[in-house]
Amino acid sequence: MNSFGHLLRVTTFGESHGPAIGCVLDGCPPGIAIAPEDFAHDLARRATGKTRHTSARHEADEVEILSGVYEGVTTGTPIALLIRNTDQRSKDYSAIAAQFRPGHADYSYWQKYGIRDPRGGGRSSARETTMRVAAAVIARKWLAQRGVTVRGCMTAIGDVVPRSHDWSAVEDNPFFWPCAEQVAELETYMDALRKSGDSVGARVLVVADGVPPGWGEPIYGKLDGELAAAMMSINAVKGVEIGDGFASVAQKGSEHRDVMTPAGFLSNHAGGILGGISTGQQVSVSVAFKPTSSLRLPVQGLDVDGNVVDVVTTGRHDPCVGIRATPICEAMLALVLMDQALRHRAQCGDVGEVAPRIAGTTSITDAKR
Amino acid sequence: MNSFGHLLRVTTFGESHGPAIGCVLDGCPPGIAIAPEDFAHDLARRATGKTRHTSARHEADEVEILSGVYEGVTTGTPIALLIRNTDQRSKDYSAIAAQFRPGHADYSYWQKYGIRDPRGGGRSSARETTMRVAAAVIARKWLAQRGVTVRGCMTAIGDVVPRSHDWSAVEDNPFFWPCAEQVAELETYMDALRKSGDSVGARVLVVADGVPPGWGEPIYGKLDGELAAAMMSINAVKGVEIGDGFASVAQKGSEHRDVMTPAGFLSNHAGGILGGISTGQQVSVSVAFKPTSSLRLPVQGLDVDGNVVDVVTTGRHDPCVGIRATPICEAMLALVLMDQALRHRAQCGDVGEVAPRIAGTTSITDAKR
Amino acid sequence: MNSFGHLLRVTTFGESHGPAIGCVLDGCPPGIAIAPEDFAHDLARRATGKTRHTSARHEADEVEILSGVYEGVTTGTPIALLIRNTDQRSKDYSAIAAQFRPGHADYSYWQKYGIRDPRGGGRSSARETTMRVAAAVIARKWLAQRGVTVRGCMTAIGDVVPRSHDWSAVEDNPFFWPCAEQVAELETYMDALRKSGDSVGARVLVVADGVPPGWGEPIYGKLDGELAAAMMSINAVKGVEIGDGFASVAQKGSEHRDVMTPAGFLSNHAGGILGGISTGQQVSVSVAFKPTSSLRLPVQGLDVDGNVVDVVTTGRHDPCVGIRATPICEAMLALVLMDQALRHRAQCGDVGEVAPRIAGTTSITDAKR
Amino acid sequence: MNSFGHLLRVTTFGESHGPAIGCVLDGCPPGIAIAPEDFAHDLARRATGKTRHTSARHEADEVEILSGVYEGVTTGTPIALLIRNTDQRSKDYSAIAAQFRPGHADYSYWQKYGIRDPRGGGRSSARETTMRVAAAVIARKWLAQRGVTVRGCMTAIGDVVPRSHDWSAVEDNPFFWPCAEQVAELETYMDALRKSGDSVGARVLVVADGVPPGWGEPIYGKLDGELAAAMMSINAVKGVEIGDGFASVAQKGSEHRDVMTPAGFLSNHAGGILGGISTGQQVSVSVAFKPTSSLRLPVQGLDVDGNVVDVVTTGRHDPCVGIRATPICEAMLALVLMDQALRHRAQCGDVGEVAPRIAGTTSITDAKR
């Protein structure tokens, strides 16, 4: 189960400290222009080692296109992408090879397989998500040709939340933070956190604009269902919301239901999805990230023989793994949307809307959050 | 995409007011004793028309076993279950056949398919979930033979939350509420809500005890990922959490990570899943339900020609659709667990744990919530 | 694994002598007109009890549409079809419940599942194929709207082969035989065979005309690969050929390769498929059926305790099971083609041919066989 | 659709003359010892350039293990294998980039995708099958631990058939020919063929010994159905048979049915499969290969503008592509068997036979052919 998607199918492979990581993107339409340099921007946004607020591991993340592209254009055959791992430091992890770190997949992998690759978390490392971002570069190109764009930002780091929301601020700071005036404050917050040896959780919002109504497959291929699975497959994710999410619990029906007018929807509590199918409004997804479990703070753990041991993690880790997760969440949103778009085209054709389209169905009330 | 599960595969069919609903459960191991009367208990828990707090529609929900069972025992071939619809009142819905109700799948289905069955919501009705509960009866039997049990309760109705948590209270009130002393209060609350013509959201907690470590498939078949998709596929769900869920955002890593001792885990913030694989602790999932959109309160809507119309829904509806959702969430949890159990057996065999098992890995700290 | 198809997905259920057989057809485009009476013609072609040359079992085979069709038109939701079994005679089979009939699935089902439904072969009966024919009625309607038609005939019964090939003769005799002058001879042959208590094998040819170039997915979803699996999934099939099939073994490359001219292909040794993708020529598939193993002739067998027993099958059986297989092979061809058509539309759009189309690519050399 | 298998899942990528070919083997059980040198033997058997009877292209075929193996043992995570292409000669093919070679996938790929990689056939080249052989090395190891072995041989080259059948002769000649005394004759035959510029078809037999009864999933995941799809997915295959295959057509039921005795089956017309499930006898599959279409003999073709052109293929090609196909067919048999074995373990457990096992169910009558 290292693949996802039904028609646009992503298969990833590789361990944190193995020779390489890679992916195969299958089912991609022919005719999309792709060059090795197309991957640089999004991979850099996800990469560690760029600022002091993420892991110090430095990866060049140079993508080699092994197949599926001829003379710069996709051919419809599987696209294999490969990135060599270049900054592995296996020695960082050797001490804990026989230990189970609390909050880590060490113990569960060991229980499942009876063996684990301890180098940097092996397959359970967030290193794997690099390939999702790479694959999504192609999906984003295809979606953009259809007017669909995907973006994301942080909406909480620990207990800090944005005081205002300005999309244009997001790419100008290392936190994907939508409120410029808070950035200095966050720098201080993160510096103190890093010094303390502890970590915090985070909340990420990703949205898609321009999604036409009709994408999504009831009942078990619902757009929101697949988004939930896609987001939950990212390391450290503990919760997913569509639209108002858990806030819906305390709402009244008369408040939650989004009224339609010829001029558009008057609100977007639904997050752009009803009955598992896009409505034409902005699709919005929120994702909860737990705090990193790899801390310099010692903690009691077990070794593989069941003995109590002191676990101290000295490797390079993110004090807030959620920060770099923004481009990963965007990638998963893009990949799910493109897969659903292809499935919609298969069943219902390309003819577009069949009912009167509500004006401005994309983002009249482009959620304030 | 009316199927889910990889080895234990559920396919459902049927519309709210069509002749019947049904499902096919494929991949079920042979040798499980099943009788038609086994379905009654769980279906009654989910059924409408039992108390004044749910829709007045009365369905007998008698299950006919059409295949896959010989002399009372599953044979390994597909099990088809059929329930005839008996209390359809198509007239309730005829007035709104050409209207799009705000907050409903009416509009998105119309946009996708260019046609919709307006009778009781057609395929988008929660009527479909009956078959998930039926299919899960078989899964729960199989899981119980392995010591795995599944249960659920409400943890919020609107802004009301339980003052205490007592599992033994849950089945003694119509709200699956874990705090007996609040039941009278809830009755009053719901009566007032029903009279107002409005609705509220809800929050459901489902847990599985006895799950051995090792179930779940990284990366894209993670146990939590599949649970998220399964829950999000239920009508009206807008959010899913594993373990501490969104509360993890504000936590520190030193607080969130669950410490292991030879006597067991000291906490269960993770909700029993690390790296997508069960740890042996209690698996816990929380689900957010939006308030029902079908209200007696009039609202502005559009008709299929784009004209503004007044929408008044006069059919039978639930003022809090989340109430009946508890057994549905339980069903999805059971079906996902059994599918993962079979997949684990396929890849890793039946031999059980390979590492020293932590004592009492199921529910040492059976979450207080 | 009681489902097949990737986008157009057929799931069947039911045993030979259970209460009912049925299927769910998922992924079907909306807007196809379907009425219960549409199924009668093809089901009658497949049915037993129509002539003395097939099993005497008489089944009414009345199809009930349980879902997915509203006001006579498909809605895009799953279409469930149900047929009640009406002429079960369990007593015919009781004697052999504890025996393994040579050449039957009795023994292999028992070994796999440890249990089997002995009534009429249970799930392994060709009764199941009824639902494939029913599902294909819908596929054939959709294909016909695109100019694609499917037909079939017998090309061998035992060692008898057609002396000439006339498609117009096929539906006028009970053997789907393409040479009218041989029909009386075949009647005599089959009467003698039936009296002898023995059975023979058969060979069926099915072809599709009007298939545009481009359908089929390399590498593991090749059109020919999926046709091979589809045909081999039919009871009693032991071989499948595309185009010249096994005759290709002794051919030279200069003889086998089909020359293209602006006026069309000059031959069709390939059977309309190159590289797993349709060429626009007639798609042709040949299928080998083994002789029925249920014979009145006694044979030595084993019982479930390993003892040698005399097996005499007294039930109603076909002396040449291949005869009724013609409409079944047609059904599988239609279902595979429609699934591939949807997949092609998903990846490559509906725009049709991109290269200069060879004139008359459908059936210039409509193979002589 | 560049993946196959349900639990043991193979995804391949790469073009004939691209930078590399590779595969991802997902779902593999942990604990299998694998080293890079394990691949050499089987890859050499499949490779071109070893004798004058196959294409002169020389590929080193050195396998790099990119993931899924830690300290020489599989970990249960996806195993990625990579082979760099080293002997591409794009110039060989440049002349025909704008032409459609008769009998090739050139035309159908062009029609499907509107673009094709003309270098050496691109994705449609048999170069892709290298990765199937590589993946199967791992499957064969796992099967061997369970007593299951796979082997294959040629049973026809053009119109030449073996005069006798001796498995021990097969690996001692470049034709996988089971009759040593014919080898010199075949050398002469092939030399003459190569000189003539023409090619011939071939027939390959692959068998599996030691397969326990019970593997295979009715109805649409039948062992024989999946074998048919697997074989038909190999380049140039036009037909597949199980057991007696097309010879069954002319057989009587009394002749075809394999009689069971406490000492074993008395024959194996079924080829080890009944009802889609293995019987415990030798599984046997025959595969028909068409003659290579790439000939030095000129032929009329079309160019992409629809003009008639003379096509002369001057690249390096096999005069009988079927020769090297023997290890490829073996690979597909092994991969399908292992996938089915895992699926059987999932549904029915590992406990083995449930009914009295017939003595010597593997290969009492190890088919004479």
From TrEMBL, chains A, B, C, D:
Query: Does Lyase appear among the keywords?
Result: yes
> What assembly does the database describe for this protein?
Homotetramer.
Q: Which UniProt keywords apply?
A: Amino-acid biosynthesis, Aromatic amino acid biosynthesis, FAD, Flavoprotein, FMN, Lyase, NADP
Q: Which family does it belong to?
A: Belongs to the chorismate synthase family.
Residues annotated as coiled-coil are none
Q: Which residues does NADP(+) bind?
A: R46, R52
Q: Kindly state what the record says about how the cofactor is bound.
A: Reduced FMN (FMNH(2)).
Name the enzyme's class.
lyase
The superkingdom listed in its UniProt entry is: Bacteria
Alphabetically, the GO molecular function entries are: chorismate synthase activity; FMN binding
Keyword Lyase part of the UniProt annotation:
yes
Role summary: This reaction introduces a second double bond into the aromatic ring system.
InterPro entries to which the protein is assigned, alphabetical: Chorismate_synth, Chorismate_synth_AroC_sf, Chorismate_synthase_CS
Q: Which GO CC terms are listed, alphabetically?
A: cytosol
Q: Name the pathway.
A: Metabolic intermediate biosynthesis; chorismate biosynthesis; chorismate from D-erythrose 4-phosphate and phosphoenolpyruvate: step 7/7
Name any Gene Ontology BP term: aromatic amino acid family biosynthetic process
Q: Which protein are we looking at?
A: Chorismate synthase
Q: What is its EC number?
A: 4.2.3.5
Upper classification of the source organism reads: Bacteria, Pseudomonadati, Pseudomonadota, Gammaproteobacteria, Lysobacterales
Q: Which cofactor does it need?
A: FMNH2
Residues the record lists as binding FMN: R123, S124, S125, N235, A236, G275, K290, P291, T292, S293, S294, R316
Give one Pfam family: Chorismate_synt
Q: Which reaction does it catalyse?
A: 5-O-(1-carboxyvinyl)-3-phosphoshikimate = chorismate + phosphate
